[in-house]
Write a structure and sequence with these properties.
Layout: E1 11-15, H1 23-31, H2 45-55, E2 60-64, H3 70-78, E3 84-89, H4 92-102, E4 110-115, E5 131-136, H5 145-155, E6 156-167, H6 169-175, E7 182-183, E8 188-191, E9 207-211, E10 216-219, E11 221-224, H7 228-237, E12 240-251, H8 252-256, H9 270-278, E13 280-291
Parallel strand pairs: 2-3, 2-5, 3-4, 5-6
Antiparallel strand pairs: 1-9, 6-13, 7-8, 8-11, 9-10, 12-13
Helix pairs in contact: 1-4, 2-3
The protein binds S-adenosylmethionine.
Length: 294
């Protein structure tokens, strides 16, 4: 490639496994006594209100990757027409936090907890074409979409909808600094820190990243960002059509209060300068897709 389109590979990656993150990482996140939240729209009251309205219009719905259950709590409180609510996560610790959080809410909604890794588990307990809505918030970057989307396609009704926010690769390319472990060639962001291992179970690195001729640093999670055109290809391959996409723009505090910003001194970097200027921050696009029916 030449000129403007040239992509410089400044990172060398060593990785023996194909997963983006293992449950142990999230078990550690779930076990933290005083957690900081994820930089997620679930911490924006405005977003949560409109997203739960959309979700509880349905009778049978599924959430994948509920984390600590902020969305789940709002869903069971609102209830709407929702009857059966599948809550799927590969981390037992996260599912326990969600269960505890909604235990005392009086509701007509029936939660069904499923501990499963959507990269490899076909969710056989959920019948074909039975689910009206699926939502995934701040979790799409963690999964293998080609496996998971085929499962979601199987369980969704022909009239069903899938909704997720996806890290915007163009934004990442524009605002990542040299200090970030962002791989411009692959669109991956490597996380070289992990949640404190308070339960002492140990978190193995999933690979190592080396910057230039520098030090080899272990990483524990890799987050995948996507170009809009890549998304079309992936979704089409799995039997979906993307019917809407919109930038997800959140109040600045959501980023500043998050675990991701914790301990970072680079508040003056380009991305955060922009956040400072506008008082809002954008890191993802929210897409809605429908199954393609023949
Ligand atoms: C960054 S957290 C987001 C949590 C919450 N939705 C939020 O927005 O704050 C990602 C969640 O997805 C779950 N997760 C990640 N990869 C998964 C996979 N392959 N299968 C099932 N759950 C997964 C994690 O355990 C975690 O609960």
């Amino acid at each position: 490639m030449e000129g403007e389109n040239m992509i410089e590979r400044t990172l060398t990656i060593e990785r023996a496994v194909t997963k983006h993150v293992f449950p142990e990482y999230y078990e550690a996140a779930a076990a933290i006594a005083q957690p900081r939240h994820f930089p997620s729209p679930v911490n924006d009251p405005e977003w949560i209100n409109s997203a739960t309205d959309w979700f509880v219009e349905s009778r049978i719905a599924m959430e994948v990757g509920p984390g600590r259950g902020e969305f789940a709590e709002a869903v069971v409180k609102k209830a709407g027409g929702l009857n059966r609510y599948y809550i799927v996560d590969m981390s037992r610790g996260m599912l326990n936090l969600v269960r505890d959080r909604i235990r005392t809410v009086e509701t007509e909604v029936k939660p069904v907890f499923i501990c499963a890794d959507v990269d490899s588990d076909s969710l056989s307990e959920i019948p074909d074409h039975s689910v009206d809505r699926i939502i995934m918030t701040n979790a799409f970057q963690d999964i293998n979409p080609l496996a998971a989307l085929r499962t979601f396609r199987r369980v969704l009704k022909p009239t069903g909808l899938f909704r997720a926010n996806v890290i915007d690769r163009e934004i990442r390319e524009k605002y990542s600094t040299e200090d970030d472990f962002f791989d411009r060639e692959m669109g991956y962001f490597y996380l070289t820190r992990h949640p404190p291992d308070e339960n002492g179970k140990g978190i193995e690195p999933i690979g190592y990243v080396t910057k230039g001729s520098g030090e080899k640093t272990p990483f524990y999670r890799m987050m995948r960002s996507y170009y809009r055109s890549e998304l079309d290809e992936i979704f089409n391959e799995c039997g979906f059509e993307i019917i809407s996409d919109a930038p997800l723009i959140l109040p600045k505090e959501i980023w500043m209060n998050s675990a991701a910003a914790q301990g970072r001194e680079d508040v003056g970097t380009r991305r955060l300068k922009l956040v400072d200027k506008s008082g809002r921050y954008q890191s993802s696009i929210e897409i809605i897709a429908k199954p393609v029916t023949n």
